[in-house]
Amino acid sequence: MPHRLLPVVLAFLLPTAALAAGPSDGGATTHGAMLTGLTGIIPWLVVLPILFPIIGAGLTLTLRNRLGLQYRVALGAMFLAAICSAALFAQVSANGPLMMVAGNWLPPFGIVMAVDPFGALLVLVTSLVGLIGLAYARGDVDEAGTQFGFYTFYCLLIAGVTGAFSTGDIFNLYVWFEVFLVSSFGLIVLGGRRIQFDGAVKYGVLNLIATTIFLIAVGVLYGFTGTLNMADIRLVIADLETAPVVTVGAMFVMAFAMKAAAIPLHFWLPASYHTPKVIVSALFAGLLTKVGIYSLMRVMIMLFAAKGALFVPMIGWLGVVTALLGAVGALAQVDLKRMAAFLVISGVGIMLIGFGYGTEAGLTGAIVYAVHSIIVMTAMFLVLGYAQRLAGVTHLTTGTDLYAVHGLAATLFLIFGFAAAGLPPFSGFWPKLMLIEAGFQTGGTLGIAGVVGVILSGLLTTIAVGRTWVLVYLRPPQDDGVPDPAPTLAAGASPRPFAFSLVLLALIVVGIGLVPSPLIEAARQGAAGLLDPSAYLERVLEVE
Fold first, then answer.
1. In a domain, 485, yes or no
2. Total domain count for the chain?
3. Whole-number Å distance between alpha carbons of 332 and 315
4. What angle (nearest 5°) sits at the alpha carbon of residue 140, between those of residues 139 and 142?
């Protein structure tokens, strides 16, 4: 019975997260591997952004037949998670990495949740996007979708992504991958249409291959390091021969590049992201590829350090190819959601270019772009879904004249499209400018190729966005175009749930474009922490 699962979930979660990174005021260490005593509230900030969505998933599961309550429960869970994420980000920004251990075992013996500035920033943005996405989901998900577990899967997906950004144990990074992968399977098939099953097969098979390679790499890494704690791995690898590190590094690069949808491992993304509900596509586009980028940075820069230097320029070249071919792919599409999917791939390439520079400036630009991409790619899919709701449009060949009828929808698309292209005064301008500057600082063939890749992909994206706006939003309806479905917004129904979330995302995009300094500073702290993780090591292992 579903209502019996919640106590089991809580019984599992609460003891595992009950103890923190160091002895409490009233506790005493029993021996070198363990501690006693409960923690204060601050270390709990590491796990609360994960715990609240998991509790929300359990509660929505028990309320399967109470359709009206499921949305409120999920909204409350995501709101609490967002508040805790903001508090976690403030704490880490002010005082450095924060951690919490499970089951009374100190690292490297026990499982550790550890958040540095890089992870805290992505946890905050994930919670924010998850909360805003629920406003759109209120109008996008019907009763059948609610009854068959949309909000349960939604909360688990956010928990899985947040957990991946928060873990300090590389095996548990794999575990969190599996959490959001399983929940994404549930979301992608919700609705039961043939095209969804087709997309789910392509999505599932290739992602399972990636996670299998990841798991094998973790096993090999454990075999020659004897540890799974990320901080401990960093110290052990520094004393190892290069050959085994290169071997396992190649496996990690392949797994995470496939997760990030870098070309030529990208085929699953455009084949699947256009098939589920719009809110699901938006969440996937905004979050899932960024987990691959985050993992690649965390493992290759922080864990492997100098031993992973061989892969860094290779990843940069992979980014140049991905950025350009992704933008070309967007130009080649007629289906609007497939076009947006290729823009996601192009953005992955931009981030890999910054990674490939291997400098603080390059990593800072890549992190800023990752935050921008989470917000803008989520918004891009949502605004295309909004147009479909209003006018039934799904293809370039059928005009809608939406600019005259629904000017807000047309304006919002233009804002998000120009942001994706990197035009001012929107959020995408600053990270692209930073990556261009970092490319000139890096110099060499890769530096110049990266600059060309960033500029040219932006130009191609601008053309793709401008063409879509003219053909879809300005042109009157065409009788000879590809048949589109009828508008799905019922007569007399309010578009406010959709418009509210989109306007809020647009304000964030414009706000970052006008006042980028706080985000850039947070990203700079994150990049510095990857290149010099001494504060992370000291907090986790008490190593100076």
1. no
2. 1
3. 25
4. 90
